[in-house]
């Protein structure tokens, strides 16, 4: 059970009240023994632990850094993005908290089911679009009258930016974000039921002299398959499992059946390109070793043995005479 830690000023005030008789120590003990009841709102069910929320925060802090780098390069102006807060709230409460007319990008993230929503404050979105079109980054909020060109520019801008989401989520899931919908009115967008718990990551965003918020809405149905990976136990558990003897035996049998190429090197020679071009049938190329010299045997291009050529049952064969130790020359 977590204990509340008092500051030094609170401790001083408490001691002062006790010494002055304003508070009774016995009364304090009695209150402490009484059961404390905490009000629980079932409409605001907390379905994620603090540990899981911390993991999501770390993931999206990385995402914010990647977005900062991406937009700084794309817009060629000062961009700063950082995580302001991470909360779990009902979807209906999230919709009420954002402007009535705003920029809404809906993404599918296969193989995960469900969709995620990225809401961009219109001031930020227009400042970005102004920079892309060669302006100074001025912001005007006329989201109700978006032209087709403006809609296309904005959707392309955030679709390319969310490729960074794939990298930020790589530690828990291999996702492939795809923009599936672009909307300006939250009332026309019903991703999940109103009481469904969603995690909302709010990003403080500054583009040039314009500031605003980018909100990422992650429904519980989307995160459910990866919830175990958001726990600290997942990161602390070791992957070094002891193999059973049966597994080791089976592995050894499979390794012994693996095929390796073997080569017996009769010798080598070096000729010029001119000599190579003038070669004809019947010409002889002199090698760098004698007929009765031992041959080097290579296993998978690595020198391993010394041998001598011969025949076995009318087949060409080679007899192994000795091993080549690591770092040792065969004397050829």
Automatic annotation (TrEMBL):
Keyword Cell membrane found: yes
Membrane topology: Peripheral membrane protein
One Gene Ontology cellular component annotation held by this UniProt entry: bacterial-type flagellum basal body
Transmembrane feature ranges: none
Coarse class of the protein's main subcellular location: other
Key words of the record: Bacterial flagellum, Cell membrane, Cell projection, Chemotaxis, Cilium, Flagellar rotation, Flagellum, Membrane
UniProt record, GO biological process: bacterial-type flagellum-dependent swarming motility; positive chemotaxis
UniProt entry tagged with the keyword Ribosomal protein: no
Residue ranges occupied by any Flagellar motor switch protein FliN-like C-terminal domain in the UniProt entry: 254-324
Gene Ontology MF term list: cytoskeletal motor activity
InterPro entries assigned to the protein according to its UniProt record, in alphabetical order: CheC-like_sf, Flag_FliM, FliN-like_C, SpoA-like_sf
Protein location: Bacterial flagellum basal body; Cell membrane
Family: Belongs to the FliM family.
NCBIfam families: fliM_switch (TIGR01397)
Name the UniProt record assigns to this protein: Flagellar motor switch protein FliM
Source organism of the structure: Schinkia azotoformans LMG 9581
């Amino acid at each position: 059970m977590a204990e509340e830690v008092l500051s030094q000023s609170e401790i001083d005030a408490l001691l002062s009240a006790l010494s002055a008789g304003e508070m009774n120590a016995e009364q304090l003990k009695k209150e402490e023994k009484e059961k404390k009841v905490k009000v629980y709102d079932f409409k605001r069910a907390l379905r994620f632990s603090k540990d899981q929320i911390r993991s999501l925060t770390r993931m999206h802090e990385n995402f914010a850094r990647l977005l900062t780098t991406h937009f700084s390069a794309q817009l060629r102006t000062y961009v700063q993005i950082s995580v302001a807060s991470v909360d779990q709230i009902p979807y209906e409460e999230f919709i009420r908290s954002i402007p009535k007319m705003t920029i809404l990008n809906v993404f599918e993230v296969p193989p995960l089911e469900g969709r995620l929503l990225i809401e961009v404050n219109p001031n930020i979105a227009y400042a970005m679009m102004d920079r892309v079109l060669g302006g100074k980054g001025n912001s005007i909020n006329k989201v109700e009258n978006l032209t087709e060109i403006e809609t296309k520019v904005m959707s392309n801008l955030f679709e390319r930016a969310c490729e960074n989401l794939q990298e930020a989520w790589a530690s828990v899931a291999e996702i492939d974000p795809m923009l599936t919908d672009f909307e300006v009115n939250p009332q026309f967008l019903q991703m999940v039921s109103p009481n469904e718990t969603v995690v909302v990551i709010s990003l403080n965003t500054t583009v040039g002299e314009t500031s605003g918020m980018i909100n990422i809405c992650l429904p519980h149905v989307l995160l459910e398959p990866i919830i175990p990976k958001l726990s600290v136990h997942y990161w602390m558990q070791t992957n070094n499992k002891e193999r059973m003897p049966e597994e080791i035996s089976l592995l050894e049998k499979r390794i012994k059946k693996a095929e390796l190429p073997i080569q017996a090197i009769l010798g080598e020679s070096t000729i010029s390109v001119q000599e190579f071009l003038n070669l004809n049938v019947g010409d002889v190329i002199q090698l760098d070793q004698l007929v009765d010299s031992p041959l080097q045997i290579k296993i998978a291009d690595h020198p391993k043995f010394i041998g001598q050529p011969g025949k076995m049952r009318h087949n060409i064969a080679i007899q192994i005479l000795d091993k080549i130790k690591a770092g040792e020359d065969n004397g050829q």
